[in-house]
Amino acid sequence: WDFNENLPEQYSRIYRFQNIQHSTKRAMDFPKENGVTPYGAYCRVTLIGVAAGVVESHPGHLPMVLSSLFPHEHKLSVIHYKMKRSYHSNAIIPSKTLCEFHCGFKRFSSKPIFSEDTRNDKAKYQRFFFHGENASVASIYGQIMFGSAPVLMFLTKENEESEFVATGQFMSANPNRLIIKRIILTGYPFRIHKRKSVVRFMFFNPHDISYFRPVELRTKCGLRGHIKESLGTHGYMKCVFSDFVKHHDTICMNLYKRVYPIWFPATWGDSSASNQQTLAITQEQTMEEGEGMIQT
After folding, report:
1. Distance of alpha carbon 89 from alpha carbon 105, whole angstroms
2. How high does pLDDT run on average in the chain?
3. Is 70 exceeded by the pLDDT of residue 131?
4. Roughly how many angstroms between the first and final C-alpha of the chain, as a whole number?
5. CB burial class (10 A; 0-12, 13-18, 19+) of residue 122?
6. Is residue 255 scored above 70 in pLDDT?
7. CB-count exposure of residue 15 (10 Å: 0-12, 13-18, 19+)
8. DSSP letter at 266?
9. Chain centroid to CA 124
């Protein structure tokens, strides 16, 4: 699968590392090279360009948190979080649901898509975030992070308090991770002659049959086959299989498509453009759900 094939427009706005391990090491060594105070040491902090009223208005019983960013952490990329559902929550969480993330000192909202946690660069898309022993990966467009920061995930509800639903940690900033969505087209034998069969109700015009002709077929009884030719103008097709076809069998075709996160500008603080851009992109992605899938 080509990582750079049919990329969306949003990939022209994000940052991609050539060597993420090397960039992470350089970023973590940046404070030491610039003389930043090491962990556990006392230091004096001088604030420049900050109004005195900010310090005076701060409650005395609460600590003041000062935070900074490593190099490249202000840039955008595809961020992956390894998450696991909390057993205290029974909420149903579909992909692309508005959620709130607490990652280190950062607080932001986003619409993640979920996939299986695998060791390779391909992962199966999950329509819902399920309970279970295995963790899932939540992917969003967001600001780059280094290290392994803890993450809390809350489900945002209208006119109600946010519900805690999952916990996990930052996984990686990798736009090349493939999230693959699978659909199965099904057809039924109309006429059978030994290993040959006329299949209907999988397609409804000859053009689609010609386009998907190279894709392998399979049946629920375990047979393998391929499309031989189109028959007529209503989507009937002649197919050949590895063994005798039975009348009660179902013909299946697996199709795959790469899925991308939702572009949600409010995640990195661009609230002015979030409403218009998110609406347009969501409508575009909804229309693409019914288009032809890319085969592996």
Report:
1. 24
2. 84
3. yes
4. 7
5. middle
6. yes
7. middle
8. G
9. 10
More confident residue, 110 or 279: 110
Is residue 130 classed as helix, strand or coil in its secondary structure? coil
Q: Pick from 17, 172, 142, 147: which is nearest to 80 by CA? A: 172
Query: Long-range pairs for 87-91 at CB < 8 Å and ≥24 separation?
Result: 87/131, 88/164, 89/155, 89/163, 89/164, 89/165, 89/166, 91/155, 91/163, 91/165
Going by their DSSP bridges, the two strands 178-193 and 163-173 should be labelled as unpaired
Which DSSP string corresponds to 146-213? -S--EEEEEE--TTS--EEEEEEEEEEE-TT-EEEEEEEEEEEEEEEETTEEEEESS-SSHHHHHHTT
Per residue in 79-96, pLDDT (tens digit) is 999 999 988 888 889 999
Write the pLDDT tens digit of every residue in 155-203.
988 777 888 999 999 998 889 999 999 999 999 999 999 999 999 999 9
CB-count burial class (<10 Å; 0-12, 13-18, 19+) for 82: middle
For residue 164, count other CB atoms closer than 10 A to its CB. 16
- Asked if pLDDT for residue 206 goes beyond 80, the answer is yes
| pLDDT at position 218 over 90 | yes
Q: Are 85 and 132 in contact (CB under 8 A)?
A: yes
The two tokens of residue 213 are 């002709």
Name the residue type at position 93.
I
Place of tokens 């049919």: 6
φ/ψ of 180, rounded to 5, equals -105, 130
Do strands 136-143 and 122-126 pair parallel, antiparallel, or not at all (unpaired)? unpaired
For residues 150 and 69, give the distance between their C-alpha atoms in angstroms, rounded to a whole number: 16
pLDDT at 90: 86
**With contact defined as beta carbons under 8 Å apart, do 102 and 152 qualify?**
yes
Name, of 171-175, 251-255, 281-285, the range with top average pLDDT. 251-255
